[in-house]
Structures are given as C-alpha cells and as structure tokens.
C-alpha cells in the first residue's frame, strides 16, 4: 500500500482500539500486550468514540475499530476517514456476515474486516499483517504519464457515446489502467445508462459547488462500474439550465489526473464553443462521424477548430455505424472531402447493438469476437499509441497519483490534499 506519509514524519502511537463489548476489550488488551503495545490504548465505545477521540488526537499507526453498533457502516467509515491522518492502517470488526459489505469496506481503504466473535489467533494474525503493511516500503513503482482522451461526435446519432464508453471499458479491462469516464452531456448523457448504472448527482453537485471538488469529492461522487473504471455523469432536470463558466469541469479533470491513469471525456460538440479550455490538456481526440454529407461538413469544421485551438492533441477520425451496403458517401469520397484518411471504421451490427442495450453492457464488451469488437479494440490501440507517442510527463498532473479504485491506505492521498487545501485557504 502506498501513502505519502513516511515513518519518521512525526510521533504516532503504534496502536489504538475502540471496541463495544467486554470480551473484545479483554482479548485486544491481552494481544496488544503480547505485541509490545500499551493495553491502555484499548478503549470502549466503538466507532462513535473512535471518531470523537481521533478528531482531537493524532491517529495511530494501526487502528482497530468495532462497528457492531454502526447503523450505516460505509458512511461511518467515511466519517472516520475525515479524522484519520494519512498512513493509518485500519482493521474493522463487526457482526454482519456479508461479502458485499466486506468488499465495500476493503475498497474504502480498510485493511481487514473481522467477523465477531473472533479468536486470539485470528486477531493476532490481523494485527501482525497490519504492522507489516505499515512498515512496508512506500515505493510508488514506475510512473507513466496520465492520458486524457476526448470523444467528440460530429452529429447527433453518430454513436460518440457508444465509442466513449467502449474506449473506457477497453482501457480499464484490457489494459487494466484505472480509468475515469466523464460524461459532459449533463441533461441527456447516456454513459451511465449504457452500463446499467444510476448516474447520481455527482456532476450536478460539482457544477453547482466547484469549491467542493477535491480527491474526497471525486471518490464519493463517481459511480464505480468496475475495480478499474469509474463514471461521473448526470441526469439533470431539463428545466434546470447548467450555468457555469466551465471551471468545475477543468477542476474535475485536474483531480482525475491525480487519481487515475486515463481520463475519457464524452464531449458534446457544443462544448468546444462554450468551454474551449477543456481541450488544453487532451492528448488524443477521437472525432466520431458517419459517412454522410452533413457529417463530412462538420468533420471538416471540427478538424479545423482542433488544429487552431488544440494543436497539441493527436486526432483520430472514427467512422462509426458504417453499413455494409452503399453509404451516403463512400469512404474514398469522404476522405477526399475532409482531406485526410479515416483512421478507424466500425461496422454497424444491429444484433450486437441491441444485445448490448438489453444486457446493460458497452458495445465493446458485447461484441467480443465480432468484427465490431475487433474494430473497437483496434481503435483503442491506436488511441493509446497516439497518446504514448508524445512520451512526456504530464505538465500539470506531476507524478501519477494513486488510483481511487484500489486501496488507498485509508484515504492517505485525500487527507493530505485536503490539509493542503485548508492551508492554502488560510
């Protein structure tokens, strides 16, 4: 587990515990004494007492907390994270035997979860493992630049959102790169719908309150599609206009750069006019089109705009939903019109598209082994290759941050960044 806090950064007690019952209290005191820790650091009171105590005292290296009296374990863990210092290794205990709860707790940053009643050997093993985790070297491993990709449709209905969701899924599943997907169509976006997810209010809240955007907000607001893919989208009421100067979008992308390896922006074409600064740090832009006269006209206009306003981005033209019969414009004529080649051609397959919609899967996931799937995989490889051609460190992201989709050593990164933000405000 990686954390910005290093041993030696300040005096911290090796161990604190907060438990709810006498049996756990006595057992923890005995095992703590075996490990050379002060038995008096074992307290009664459970989660509530832990949050209250740690809000006014320094966090220990290892924290044991009893969640037996917690009505909302995940919310209480978030409250505990607010008062824990970076680097704290947390072991929780409780009476709920639910694998989903266990997975959610581990994903939130908990090192281990013990089901009560637990024995001395089980407790000792968990504490020794936590000690090993805390003392392990904090080496972040090899770095690679963050990659930001924008997907822009030349016309409504060309399937830009289908391409964006497929690209995000392929990067996260095939390449195992922690990926963020940002759907900037705040009223009619379909990215979450494609994956059978509820969009939540995360993006709407970010637009309304840009000052709230930080690492902790990102983790709570994003909807997780898998261990390596998270989505931020909205389904804002159509009677509610989104009044923003675009600053919130830019802040979101900055946080993505610290928390993920790849960011995919499903960017409605009108955003180029309203918020051109969104393209400032985009490495690769996929211009999605169909082979029609209107799309050819708008492809020319968008390519011209990108050349002038985002010269750093590498552009791929993706012809999507191409029918096997005669299209309105042939590929050759289309390429002559836009004065460049079409990089990727994705065939139209009604059966696979319908199956993907029914199953709540991305087109790429539903099209495994089909021509459509091969074309989308090739598109992902080209996009990733184009991003890596530059081979330069991120100008604004600095070092690659930890993925919020893995264990975060109990939100070490979030806590430290929040303290930095408060210090700057002071």
Automatic annotation (TrEMBL):
UniProt keyword Cell inner membrane present: no
One Gene Ontology biological process: phosphorelay signal transduction system
Spans through the membrane: none
Signal peptide positions on this chain: none
Any one GO molecular function term: ATP binding
Keyword annotations: ATP-binding, Nucleotide-binding, Phosphoprotein
Keyword Electron transport: no
GO cellular component, one term: cytoplasmic side of plasma membrane
SUPFAM superfamilies in the record: CheY-like, P-loop containing nucleoside triphosphate hydrolases
Residues bearing PTM 4-aspartylphosphate: 66
PROSITE patterns: RESPONSE_REGULATORY
InterPro entries xref list: CheY-like_superfamily (IPR011006), P-loop_NTPase (IPR027417), ParA/MinD_ATPase (IPR050625), Sig_transdc_resp-reg_receiver (IPR001789)
Residue ranges of every copy of the Response regulatory domain listed in the record: 16-131
PANTHER family named among the record's database cross-references: SEPTUM SITE-DETERMINING PROTEIN MIND HOMOLOG, CHLOROPLASTIC, SEPTUM SITE-DETERMINING PROTEIN MIND HOMOLOG, CHLOROPLASTIC-RELATED
Protein name per its UniProtKB record: Pilus assembly protein CpaE
Lineage: Bacteria, Pseudomonadati, Pseudomonadota, Alphaproteobacteria, Sphingomonadales
């Amino acid at each position: 587990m990686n954390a910005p806090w290093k041993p030696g950064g300040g005096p911290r007690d090796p161990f604190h515990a907060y438990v709810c019952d006498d049996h756990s209290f006595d057992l923890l005191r005995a095992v703590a004494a075996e490990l050379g820790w002060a038995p008096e650091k074992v307290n009664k009171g459970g989660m509530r007492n832990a949050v209250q105590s740690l809000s006014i005292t320094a966090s220990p290296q290892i924290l044991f907390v009893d969640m037996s009296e917690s009505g909302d374990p995940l919310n209480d863990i978030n409250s505990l994270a607010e008062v824990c210092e970076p680097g704290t290794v947390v072991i929780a205990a409780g009476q709920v035997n639910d694998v989903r709860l266990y997975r959610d707790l581990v994903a939130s940053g908990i090192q281990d979860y013990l089901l009560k009643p637990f024995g001395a050997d089980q407790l000792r093993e968990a504490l020794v493992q936590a000690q090993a985790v805390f003392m392990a070297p904090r080496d972040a491993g090899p770095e690679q630049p963050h990659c930001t990709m924008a997907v822009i449709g030349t016309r409504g209905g060309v399937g830009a959102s289908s391409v964006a969701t497929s690209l995000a899924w392929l990067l996260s599943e095939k390449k195992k790169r922690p990926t963020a997907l940002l759907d900037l169509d705040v009223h009619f976006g379909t990215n979450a719908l494609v994956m059978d997810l509820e969009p939540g209010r995360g993006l709407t809240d970010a637009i309304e309150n840009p000052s709230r955007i930080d690492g902790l907000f990102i983790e709570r607001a994003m909807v997780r599609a898998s261990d390596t893919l998270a989505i931020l989208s909205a389904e804002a009421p159509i009677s509610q206009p989104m009044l923003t100067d675009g600053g919130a979008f830019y802040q979101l992308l900055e946080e993505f750069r610290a928390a993920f390896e790849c960011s995919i922006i499903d960017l409605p074409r009108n955003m180029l006019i309203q918020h051109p600064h969104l393209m400032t740090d985009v490495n690769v832009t996929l211009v999605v089109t169909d082979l029609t006269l209107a799309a050819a006209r708008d492809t020319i206009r968008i390519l011209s705009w990108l050349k002038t306003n985002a010269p750093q981005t590498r552009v791929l033209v993706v012809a999507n939903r191409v029918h096997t019969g005669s299209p309105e414009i042939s590929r050759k004529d289309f390429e002559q019109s836009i004065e460049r080649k079409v990089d990727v051609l994705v065939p139209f397959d009604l059966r696979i598209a319908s199956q993907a919609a029914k199953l709540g899967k991305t087109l790429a996931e539903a099209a495994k082994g089909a021509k459509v799937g091969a074309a989308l995989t090739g598109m992902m490889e080209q996009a990733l290759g184009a991003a890596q051609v530059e081979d330069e460190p991120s100008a604004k992201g600095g070092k690659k941050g930890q993925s919020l989709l893995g264990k975060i050593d109990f939100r070490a990164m979030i806590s430290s960044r929040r303290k930095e933000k408060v210090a700057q405000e002071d």
